[in-house]
Amino acid sequence: MKKLFLSLLLIFVAGKAMADGMPLTLAADAPAANAITPPTSVMKALCTLSPASGSQVQGWVKFTQLKGSVLVEGDVTGLAPGKHGFHIHDKGDCSAPDATSAGGHFNPLDQKHGAPNSVKSHMGDLGNIKADSTGHAKFKFKNKIIQLSGEYSIVDRAIIVHAALDDEKTQPTGNAGARVACGVIQISN
Protein backbone atom coordinates (compact mmCIF):
# COMPACT_ATOMS: atom_id res chain seq x y z
CA MET A 1 0.00 0.00 0.00
CA LYS A 2 2.87 2.35 0.91
CA LYS A 3 4.56 1.68 -2.49
CA LEU A 4 1.31 2.37 -4.34
CA PHE A 5 0.83 5.66 -2.45
CA LEU A 6 4.44 6.77 -3.17
CA SER A 7 4.08 5.84 -6.85
CA LEU A 8 0.87 7.85 -7.16
CA LEU A 9 2.46 10.78 -5.33
CA LEU A 10 5.46 10.69 -7.68
CA ILE A 11 3.18 10.63 -10.74
CA PHE A 12 1.16 13.55 -9.35
CA VAL A 13 4.26 15.67 -8.60
CA ALA A 14 5.80 14.94 -12.01
CA GLY A 15 2.53 15.75 -13.78
CA LYS A 16 2.13 19.00 -11.82
CA ALA A 17 5.73 20.05 -12.58
CA MET A 18 5.31 19.38 -16.30
CA ALA A 19 1.97 21.21 -16.35
CA ASP A 20 3.70 24.22 -14.77
CA GLY A 21 6.34 24.14 -17.53
CA MET A 22 9.14 22.77 -15.37
CA PRO A 23 11.35 20.16 -17.05
CA LEU A 24 11.42 16.74 -15.43
CA THR A 25 14.96 15.60 -14.67
CA LEU A 26 15.70 12.09 -13.57
CA ALA A 27 18.41 11.58 -10.98
CA ALA A 28 20.61 9.84 -13.55
CA ASP A 29 20.36 12.90 -15.82
CA ALA A 30 20.98 15.47 -13.09
CA PRO A 31 24.37 17.22 -12.99
CA ALA A 32 26.69 16.47 -10.12
CA ALA A 33 26.25 18.75 -7.11
CA ASN A 34 29.58 20.47 -7.79
CA ALA A 35 29.16 20.72 -11.60
CA ILE A 36 29.17 24.18 -13.17
CA THR A 37 26.30 24.72 -15.59
CA PRO A 38 27.01 27.46 -18.14
CA PRO A 39 24.28 30.04 -18.63
CA THR A 40 22.06 29.42 -21.64
CA SER A 41 21.56 33.11 -22.31
CA VAL A 42 24.19 35.73 -21.59
CA MET A 43 22.79 39.25 -21.38
CA LYS A 44 25.92 41.27 -20.55
CA ALA A 45 29.65 40.96 -21.03
CA LEU A 46 32.61 43.20 -20.18
CA CYS A 47 36.14 43.51 -21.50
CA THR A 48 38.95 45.39 -19.74
CA LEU A 49 41.57 46.54 -22.24
CA SER A 50 45.25 46.56 -21.31
CA PRO A 51 48.21 48.01 -23.23
CA ALA A 52 49.97 45.92 -25.90
CA SER A 53 52.99 46.50 -28.15
CA GLY A 54 54.49 49.02 -25.71
CA SER A 55 51.50 51.38 -25.90
CA GLN A 56 49.68 53.21 -23.10
CA VAL A 57 46.24 52.30 -24.47
CA GLN A 58 43.69 51.05 -21.95
CA GLY A 59 39.97 51.10 -21.33
CA TRP A 60 36.83 49.00 -21.27
CA VAL A 61 34.15 47.67 -23.61
CA LYS A 62 30.68 46.59 -22.47
CA PHE A 63 28.31 44.37 -24.46
CA THR A 64 24.55 44.22 -23.78
CA GLN A 65 22.27 41.75 -25.55
CA LEU A 66 19.21 43.47 -27.03
CA LYS A 67 16.44 42.01 -29.15
CA GLY A 68 18.08 41.38 -32.53
CA SER A 69 21.40 43.08 -31.79
CA VAL A 70 24.15 43.69 -29.27
CA LEU A 71 24.83 47.16 -27.88
CA VAL A 72 28.58 47.86 -27.79
CA GLU A 73 29.78 50.70 -25.52
CA GLY A 74 33.30 51.63 -24.60
CA ASP A 75 35.83 54.11 -23.33
CA VAL A 76 39.47 53.90 -24.45
CA THR A 77 42.37 56.25 -23.63
CA GLY A 78 46.00 56.57 -24.72
CA LEU A 79 45.31 56.39 -28.46
CA ALA A 80 46.76 58.58 -31.18
CA PRO A 81 44.07 60.97 -32.49
CA GLY A 82 42.00 59.51 -35.33
CA LYS A 83 40.40 56.20 -36.23
CA HIS A 84 41.58 52.81 -34.99
CA GLY A 85 40.65 49.30 -36.09
CA PHE A 86 38.46 47.58 -33.50
CA HIS A 87 37.96 43.82 -33.72
CA ILE A 88 36.96 40.69 -31.88
CA HIS A 89 39.76 38.14 -32.20
CA ASP A 90 39.42 34.38 -32.10
CA LYS A 91 41.28 33.55 -28.90
CA GLY A 92 40.76 34.98 -25.44
CA ASP A 93 44.50 35.21 -24.84
CA CYS A 94 46.34 38.51 -24.40
CA SER A 95 49.53 37.00 -22.93
CA ALA A 96 51.90 37.95 -25.77
CA PRO A 97 53.43 41.46 -25.43
CA ASP A 98 52.14 42.33 -28.91
CA ALA A 99 48.78 40.53 -28.34
CA THR A 100 49.36 38.12 -31.24
CA SER A 101 48.30 35.36 -28.83
CA ALA A 102 44.71 36.50 -29.50
CA GLY A 103 44.91 34.98 -32.98
CA GLY A 104 43.17 36.39 -36.04
CA HIS A 105 39.77 38.01 -36.36
CA PHE A 106 36.84 35.94 -35.10
CA ASN A 107 35.65 34.36 -38.37
CA PRO A 108 33.75 31.10 -37.78
CA LEU A 109 31.95 31.28 -41.16
CA ASP A 110 35.17 31.74 -43.18
CA GLN A 111 34.24 35.10 -44.71
CA LYS A 112 36.51 37.86 -46.07
CA HIS A 113 37.41 40.91 -44.01
CA GLY A 114 34.96 43.77 -44.41
CA ALA A 115 32.62 46.27 -42.83
CA PRO A 116 30.75 45.75 -39.57
CA ASN A 117 27.17 44.39 -39.64
CA SER A 118 27.77 42.62 -42.96
CA VAL A 119 27.01 38.91 -43.19
CA LYS A 120 29.77 38.71 -45.80
CA SER A 121 32.57 39.77 -43.41
CA HIS A 122 34.26 38.37 -40.32
CA MET A 123 31.95 38.27 -37.29
CA GLY A 124 34.73 40.04 -35.44
CA ASP A 125 34.87 43.01 -37.81
CA LEU A 126 33.60 45.92 -35.69
CA GLY A 127 35.06 48.68 -37.88
CA ASN A 128 36.80 51.63 -36.21
CA ILE A 129 36.62 53.69 -33.08
CA LYS A 130 37.60 57.37 -33.23
CA ALA A 131 39.92 59.04 -30.74
CA ASP A 132 39.68 62.78 -30.19
CA SER A 133 42.66 65.16 -30.11
CA THR A 134 43.54 63.96 -26.57
CA GLY A 135 43.56 60.27 -27.59
CA HIS A 136 40.23 59.49 -25.93
CA ALA A 137 37.62 57.36 -27.73
CA LYS A 138 34.15 57.04 -26.28
CA PHE A 139 31.73 55.03 -28.40
CA LYS A 140 28.32 53.39 -28.49
CA PHE A 141 26.82 51.42 -31.38
CA LYS A 142 24.68 48.38 -32.17
CA ASN A 143 25.87 45.30 -34.02
CA LYS A 144 23.46 42.78 -35.53
CA ILE A 145 26.05 40.06 -36.24
CA ILE A 146 27.77 39.32 -32.93
CA GLN A 147 26.19 37.16 -30.21
CA LEU A 148 26.75 36.81 -26.47
CA SER A 149 25.38 33.25 -26.36
CA GLY A 150 25.21 30.20 -28.58
CA GLU A 151 27.49 28.59 -31.08
CA TYR A 152 29.08 31.87 -32.21
CA SER A 153 29.38 33.56 -28.81
CA ILE A 154 32.02 36.26 -28.45
CA VAL A 155 32.41 35.52 -24.71
CA ASP A 156 35.95 34.33 -23.86
CA ARG A 157 37.36 35.87 -27.04
CA ALA A 158 39.57 38.97 -27.21
CA ILE A 159 38.94 42.56 -28.22
CA ILE A 160 41.86 44.18 -30.03
CA VAL A 161 42.32 47.90 -30.65
CA HIS A 162 44.76 48.56 -33.50
CA ALA A 163 47.21 51.42 -34.07
CA ALA A 164 45.74 52.46 -37.41
CA LEU A 165 42.48 52.82 -39.32
CA ASP A 166 40.74 49.67 -40.57
CA ASP A 167 40.09 50.33 -44.28
CA GLU A 168 37.39 47.59 -44.20
CA LYS A 169 38.65 46.02 -47.44
CA THR A 170 42.33 44.96 -47.32
CA GLN A 171 42.61 41.22 -46.63
CA PRO A 172 42.77 39.74 -44.11
CA THR A 173 42.85 42.50 -41.47
CA GLY A 174 41.97 45.86 -43.00
CA ASN A 175 45.60 47.08 -42.84
CA ALA A 176 44.93 48.27 -39.28
CA GLY A 177 48.50 47.98 -38.01
CA ALA A 178 49.87 46.92 -34.64
CA ARG A 179 47.72 45.69 -31.77
CA VAL A 180 47.87 48.44 -29.14
CA ALA A 181 45.34 47.07 -26.61
CA CYS A 182 43.89 43.68 -25.78
CA GLY A 183 41.29 42.34 -23.37
CA VAL A 184 39.22 39.19 -22.91
CA ILE A 185 35.40 39.41 -23.09
CA GLN A 186 33.85 37.98 -19.93
CA ILE A 187 30.32 37.44 -18.66
CA SER A 188 29.13 40.36 -16.50
CA ASN A 189 26.16 41.13 -14.26
Write a concise synopsis of the structure shown.
This protein is mainly beta and 189 residues long. It is built from one helix and eight strands; from the N terminus they run H-E-E-E-E-E-E-E-E.
Description:
This protein has 189 residues and is mainly beta. It has 2 domains: 1-31, no CATH class; 44-187, Immunoglobulin-like (Sandwich), CATH 2.60.40.200. It has 1 helix and 8 strands; from the N terminus they run αββββββββ. An 8-stranded antiparallel β-sheet has the order 5-4-7-8-1-2-3-6, with no helix packed on it. Strand 1 (44-51) and strand 2 (58-66) form a beta hairpin. The termini are far apart. Residues 4-39 have low confidence and may be disordered.
CATH topology of the largest domain, what is it called? Immunoglobulin-like
The CATH H-level homologous superfamily of the largest domain: Superoxide dismutase, copper/zinc binding domain
Cα-to-Cα separation, first versus last residue: 51 Å
Strand order of the largest sheet: 5-4-7-8-1-2-3-6
What is the total number of structural domains? 2
Q: Tell me which CATH architecture of the largest domain applies here.
A: Sandwich
- Which residues sit in consecutive blocks of at least 5 with pLDDT less than 50? 4-39
- Average residue-wise pLDDT: 79
**What is the number of helical segments per DSSP (H or I, 4+ residues)?**
1
- In the CATH hierarchy, what is the class of the largest domain? Mainly Beta
What characterizes the major β-sheet? 8 strands, antiparallel
